[in-house]
Structure formats: C-alpha cells, structure tokens
Here is the input.
Amino acid sequence: MNDHYTPGWIDDPEAVAGIVETLPEADAALTPISEMYEVPASAYLWNIARKVLGHLLPPRNQGTVGSCVAFATVRAIEYTMLAEIAAGDPEMFASLAPEPVYAGSRVEVGKGKLGNHDGSIGAWAATFVREWGILPQQILGEHDLTTYSEARCRRWGKDGCPDDLEQLSRSHPVRSVTRVSTWTTAKQALANGYGIAVCSNQGFKMIRNEIGECRASGSWAHAMCLSGYTTLADGRELGRLDNSWGPDAHTGPVGPGDPGPEGFWADSSVIGSMLAKGDAWIFATVEGFPRRTIPWLI
Here is the structure.
C-alpha cells in the first residue's frame, strides 16, 4: 500500500457473490454489449466530457477517508450520464456526491457489518445506486453537498445516508448494474460509453512513464474508475484508470488521448487480473436530472 494515500476497498467475495445472485444479468458478457465483436482501437470516455461539457471531469480527492469505492462508482456513473446525454437523452449533467453512496453502501446495504472501520465493497455500492439512487453535488434541503466533506463522509459512513436524502435519491436510480470480469468485456463496455468501477488489491508505482503508464507494484486495497483503453503501435493494450487521490498523486506525462492528471495508464494484462477479482461494475439507464428551460432565466 502507498503510505501517503488512503485506499478503502474490502475484499469480500462472499458478499459480492450474494449481490451477483440477485442480478438479472450477472455479468457484462451476458448483455448485448458482448455482441460487439469488433471494437475500435481506442476509446476515451473523457472525450465525451469534452464534447458535452467543454472540459474534462475535475480530479477528485477522497482525502483521509477510505471512500474510494464510492468515488470510483460515482465517476463511472458520471461517464455513463455523459454518454447518455451525448446520445440525445434530455438530461443535464451534474457532478455526483460520493458521501451518500459511501454511507448507503456501508449501512443501508451492508447493514453496518464493517463497524467503525473505513471502506466498502464495490457490489454494495452498485446495489445502493440501483436500489436507492444517486444525488448531485448541490444543496439539498438542509444538506450542502456542493463540496465533498471528509467529516461528513466518515460520519455518514457510520450512521447511514440521512432519510430525507434517501427519499430524494430514489428519484434518480441507476436501473441496471452489471459486473465486468474480463478485459474483453471491459473494452466492449468502454466502447459503448460505460465507465467501470474496478476494485482490487493491485498497487502501482506513482510516477507515469513517457507514455503515461504506471507499472504494477505492491498492493492497494483500492477502487478506481476505468475510463478508457488504447492500442499501442506494437499491439500492446493499455487501460486508463482515474484515481481519487487528487491531481498531484501521480506525476509524469498523461499519455494517449490527453486525459486529466488524476490517473494513469496500465497494462491490459494487469487490469484483466484486477477485473478477475470479481468486484468491478458498469452502470446503465441512469435516471438523471431532466433538462429544464426556465423562461425568466433566458
């Protein structure tokens, strides 16, 4: 584990298996995206953000709380929302609050089994957004979620998502969540505009090389968002991982596609091993935030 940054994934195959049993489509290989036999050589989800928003999604920093599972989950859902908007859905984009997902995964889904220890399970976060929903980083009633709060994240991680926010979030469910377990289906998902929340114990070096790649090294009980892939001239494939340790955790060139500074490229064989841990997820059919025209604002 890197001593300077906080992970937070709990490796619990039994808990994941229990969630998978409840899903109508247990794996992306069983969905229509698996019928995409030929995928492009590269897919960069951050270019959808450039198209829809005019800029990249900003780097995120979970701070000292082991809330990486929630951060990876909301990042992946944000990419799905952007892809839906780019495809013509009449929605507005809103950055998503990670604190309700962290709290809900631990308490509403996990029933407080983790006690006072930080962390969560990817399958629990996927279940929360499917059954309870998502919330924007906005002022919602008495809750100001415009800026991520470590204190609030840790407090709600013990007490659960407030009841009034649960009611609001139910208007914005992610109606379909599916596990991704291979590099092949990961590429198919990315080519269809789905970010992937990937939980694993794989660690990496912090310095990117000349092509933006961080080599596998050590162990992190951590979650990140897989947001793209590319094929190098020699045929080697890389996947791009968005991290939640801020813009300065990784240094060096950002690599193909000019993504943001918050992540790095990794070899596809390494990412394939991460996916094989069994706790990686895509999110579809997001009931997001309807686009509105308010006459007096025009």
